[in-house]
Amino acid sequence: MRASLAVLSILGLVSQTQAIDPLVIKGSKWFNSKTGEQFFIKGVDYQPDITSTSSYLDPLADKTICTRDVPYLKDLGVNAVRVYQTEPYGNHDDCMKMLADAGIYVMLDLGTPNESIDRNSPSYDVNLLGYYQSKVDAFGGYDNILGFLAGNEVANSANNTDASAFVKGALRDIKAYVKSKGLTIPVGYAANDDADIRWQMQTYFDCGTTEEQADFYGLNIYEWCGTSATFETSGYANVVKNFTNWDVPAVLTEYGCNSVRPRTFPEIASIYGSDMDSTFSGGFVYEYVEESNNYGLVSISGSTVTKTEDYDNFKKALAAADPSGVAMKSYSPSGKQQSCPKVSASNSWQASDVLPPTPSNSTCECMMKSLYCVSKTTDVPTDTTALKQFGEDVSNIFGTVCATVSCDEVNGNGQSGTYGKYSFCNTIQRVSWVMNAWYKSQRGVDGSCDFNGFASLTKPSLSSDSSCSNVTGSTTGNPGSSSSDGSSSDGSSSGKSDDGESGLDSHTSGAAFAAKELSVGAMAVVVAAAAIF
Questions:
Q1: pLDDT attached to residue 48
Q2: Cα-flanking dihedrals φ and ψ of residue 307, to 5°?
Q3: Could you say which of 153, 267, 287, 517 is catalytic?
Q4: Deepest of 2, 97, 179, 186, by most Cβ within 10 A of its Cβ?
């Protein structure tokens, strides 16, 4: 019996044989690695059956879903799908093969609503890195993986751009992990199209060392609305101008304004025509399945798929697209890498080019061995009521202790580029450090390691943590129970919600906040966290 692909990928042994050629990036373009032909993404954002009894589903682990949908995707004429939510635990062989056989590549978001970076209180820890690495292990062996996205619209306004430093740190580490597995899958980022931070965002993810730079850049754009708009009046011309002479591929990771219905997709002629085909590598229309926000090409009820009016309009517009490409062997890249944007209020930018360190589980475990006062629980609760209580307890502990004792060693600041040596540890480890700091400040008096029953005394096996910051070893944390890619869950799991904001990487409830490892940082973050409850 064949070993699972995830295991084979972890061992770096093989990739699954598929009827599709792997893609490669050269300069600012994608190419077919076998034929040398330039590849333009003619894609659709695909996240069917996103929730079931409040649980997020992995569509690529369900053969029934793929058997139902792949024929429609092939009929549409798409050659790629972007999938927002998958999990590393299931078997994806059947779905990935069905897509490969249909000539369809897959771009995967690494994050999920429960496993990503929170724009309002950003942090990046060992558990999140472990989760992202497990996603690479699960999908890295498939030839039709187009790329990984390290974040989606995490920063969406000038006042939360500091979160970008943490996203870029994760991107850097996943690039390194992909390389360490002998893979060549690119890692990029998908941004919202906010004119106030548009230029700063795209230059930030392009600047720095090769190890830090995004391999491609995605833009979610909804400016072209209806047939009365043009390339110039829609704002597309200004967007394209920003990417002139860019040094990595640019792609529309979401497009398709629906304020004028039915949608006829006039922008497709520009995306795949002379207006854009020398600058952009195509895009993904939003979206395949109809949700409450009315962007779907189809509606689904169980096994029944019903085409919306947008379905045939999109199919017709895409069939007419005939981009003018270049052969890889005759293409000489001339794009130039950008400098990092200046951190200042006047520049509407708050993210330092000094990134957080790569999370080290060994360092965090070493630190825990030096503590006298630690959390009684070793895992974040999963029960909703317990999660909420856990979140309140952690917020109160940070609020009480950090008001009088410095918590710099477990905090990170993406604006100043300063990160404590334990800022990447998980919530249990960080709150344990905080409680121990209080216990030491009180000289171990009775009751100073209680915190209403949250803490307990233990005998440390190390006399101090002086050597812990230099510990090397596994960087992988517990896959799961990390932070979240955005700031507030509005009930949508992907793309545009009813209010036009991104659902994935968006706001979360108090219980979900606790589930996502409670990225607690500076005192202001603690106060904000307490306010959530």
A1: 86
A2: -75, 135
A3: 153
A4: 186
pLDDT tens for each residue of 395-433: 999 999 999 999 999 999 999 999 999 999 999 999 999
pLDDT for 114 equals: 85
pLDDT band at residue 3 under the 50/70/90 scheme: very low
Q: Residue 224, Cα to own-chain centre: how many angstroms?
A: 25
Q: Would you give the end-to-end CA distance of the chain in angstroms?
A: 50
CA separation for the pair 439, 455 (Å, rounded): 10
Tell me whether residue 309 is one of the annotated catalytic residues: no
CA–CA separation, 472 and 470 (whole Å): 6
37 is catalytic: no
30-33-34-39 Cα dihedral, nearest 10 degrees: -10
Token output for 149: 């996205």
Is the four-CA dihedral 240, 246, 249, 254 of positive or negative sign? Answer: negative
**Is-contact 277 287, C-beta < 8 A?**
no
The whole-angstrom separation of Cα 71 and Cα 399 is 54
Q: Which two tokens stand for residue 294?
A: 């009315």
Alpha-carbon Rg for the chain in angstroms: 23
As a 3-state breakdown, the chain gives helix, strand, coil percent values, each rounded to 5, of: 30, 15, 55
CA torsion, points 116, 117, 121, 123, in degrees to nearest 10? 110
**411 CB-near residues (< 8 Å, 6+ apart):** 419, 420, 423, 521, 522
Catalytic residue among 87, 115, 212, 254: 254
Residue 522 near residue 411, CB atoms below 8 Å:
yes
The tokens for 185 are: 């899958």
Pairing of strands 217-221, 187-192: parallel
Residue positions counted in the chain: 533
What pairing do the DSSP bridges indicate for beta strands 41-45 and 280-285?
Answer: parallel
Mean pLDDT computed over 131-139: 98
